[in-house]
Amino acid sequence: MFFCGVACDAESTAPGQQAEEMDQASLAKIAVESTDGNARRAVVGKLTDQTLLAKIAMEDKEWFVREAAVGKLTDQTLLAKIAVEAKDGDVRKAAAAKHLDQSLTAEAQATPQATPQATPQATPQATPQATPQATPQATPQATPPEKEQSEGAPEKLITQMAPSWNLSTLKISPDGRHLACVTPAGINEVVVVDGKDEKQYDSIETSSLLFSPDSQRVAYSVHAGRKQLVVVDGKEMKPYDAIGKGSLVFSPDGQRVAYSVRAGKKWLVVVDGKEEKPYDGIGTLVFSPDSQRVAYLSGTANKQFVVVDGKEMKSYDGVGKGTPVFSPDSQRVAYTAKAGNKQFVVVDEKEGKTYDGIGEKPVFSPDSKRVAYMGKVGGKYLVVVDGKEEKPYDGVGVIVFSPDSKRVAYAARTGDQQFVVVDGKERKSYDGIGGNPVFSPDSKRMAYAAKANDLCFVVVDEKEEKPCEGVGTIVFSPDSQRMAYLTGATSKQFVVVDGKEEKPYDGIGKDSLGFSPDSKRVIYVAKTDNQQVAVVDGKEEKQYDGILLGEKPLFDSPESFHYLALKGKSVYLVEEKLK
């Protein structure tokens, strides 16, 4: 949940800006003293103190924190000690697998098993985090659902998590029905999809693992000897000297695949297995929304340009990060460019007015007919809509078009006051504006979070809702008649639906709040008593150790919804039908 008072300065969100890392002493304090197992697990991945890591591996009360600690250990003496003395059998085996003396593996397996440990208590996030675990054993396959399913529960067993699974690489398909992760397999690594192992490789680029938008395909890049190659649906593509990090992408329809590669000293784009022209470097690579076109940033040592459908656009001193972008109808292309010390936006190969800087990337309206972006003039920032400049401010936030493309809104700052600007008109000033303005589907309504006198509240249709300590996600129903949002304090959170507060919980799942297609029901995932539960219209469904969400809403129809759930080390697909 975000809180009000978010700065609107364009410079505060400049690309590449990084938060300062916590020091080891602070991380160690969290790892030892925090009561939140997920917080401990997260910091374990950043610890370097081998003695502390060994202590955590032996003593932490949560199995996933213990195994995360083993994954970070490299001290052979400590690994040997854990392999023999740890009470957790999975931890012993993981430690033995990392030790150079493989005779410890048999000893670790022979050690009596400890009392079963507590199951993981995941926070209500879309993807649980963890650090790599190592084991020489193959990942176990899913057992028949009938053996694991609770009587009468609408559950289908997808897989059982092994101690070796690297949960930090876990990916949930967009439809929320499948999961994949990268896991060690002896000295190699392997991708596991719904519990089934794919081919082993020397190593796998964990950040490259992705599902297609239709959730039917899986792709990733691997190291095989001195070469790298892309694997799509288990099929190996041509090997190259390198695969561009973060370049692997599916088309929106899931049918096409593209990525950048290095062959010798040159870089080139590969689309559907076909190589394009080589260049000195390749940048952002994107498909058009209709999946028919491809555009990317390229260039030489001194010049950069955009390539669209194999055609090189005009060269510039630089091209903006995150561009090019296609319009929703796939017919137009826009990007930011630099010539000397000036920057400008190029739309359909036509250069716009020059500015001292351009913020973020250009934004097309949903109907593709309009374009907006932020320009900097001296120390001021202004929004440009369809080539026309609006009033300059000390800071400007994200630009949002309404669904019907007729309206434009953004947050702005003048001095210490922040406000929302809609169609060029300033709304009421506040001490802070949180997040971005949200339009209703019919474009007639708008809501946003604001702060005044140390209290936050939602402003909808220019009316202030009840004050609270913080405001999170705001959503309108599909028919635009209803609104819900997340609110509360850091200790307790709750959802407000149509102005009515629902039951408070320890946490509400990120991006889980939504309406059913017919706008009659509200759903979200909540955390309570170290368990997670789907809540529909205020009614709690069955509790689980964790709920994993994809990119799409939970509802499949007005009367049914689904999600992936954790029960111990088992992952289930839960499909509910409402009465």
Strand content: 35-45%
Q: Report the helical percentage.
A: 10-25%
What is the residue-averaged pLDDT? 84
Q: Low-confidence parts, pLDDT < 50 over ≥5 residues?
A: 1-21, 102-153
Distance, first to last CA: 31 Å
Global morphology: globular
Radius of gyration: 26 Å
- Overall SS class: mainly beta
Q: Largest sheet at a glance?
A: 5 strands, antiparallel
Instruction: Report the total helices.
Output: 8
| Tally of DSSP β-strands | 50
Explain this structure.
With 579 residues, the protein is mostly beta strands. The chain has a domain at 37-110. Helix content is 12%, strand content 40%. It has eight helices and 50 strands. The strands form eleven sheets. Strands 1, 47, 48, 49 and 50 form a five-stranded antiparallel β-sheet that branches. Strands 6, 7, 8, 9 and 10 form a five-stranded antiparallel β-sheet that branches. A hairpin with a 2-residue loop joins strand 44 and strand 45 (531-536). Helix 3 packs antiparallel against helix 4, helix 5 packs antiparallel against helix 6 and helix 6 (89-98) runs antiparallel to helix 7. It is globular and about 70 Å long.
Write the layout of secondary structure elements.
Blueprint: H1 24-33, H2 37-44, H3 50-59, H4 63-72, H5 76-85, H6 89-98, H7 103-110, H8 145-148, E1 155-160, E2 171-172, E3 179-185, E4 188-193, E5 196-201, E6 203-204, E7 210-211, E8 218-224, E9 227-232, E10 235-236, E11 242-243, E12 249-250, E13 257-263, E14 266-271, E15 274-275, E16 281-287, E17 294-299, E18 304-308, E19 311-312, E20 318-319, E21 325-326, E22 333-339, E23 342-347, E24 350-351, E25 357-364, E26 371-377, E27 380-385, E28 388-389, E29 395-396, E30 400-401, E31 408-414, E32 417-422, E33 425-426, E34 432-439, E35 446-452, E36 455-460, E37 463-464, E38 471-476, E39 483-488, E40 493-497, E41 500-501, E42 507-508, E43 514-515, E44 522-528, E45 531-536, E46 539-544, E47 546-548, E48 555-557, E49 560-567, E50 570-577
Helix pairs in contact: 1-2, 2-4, 3-4, 3-5, 4-6, 5-6, 6-7
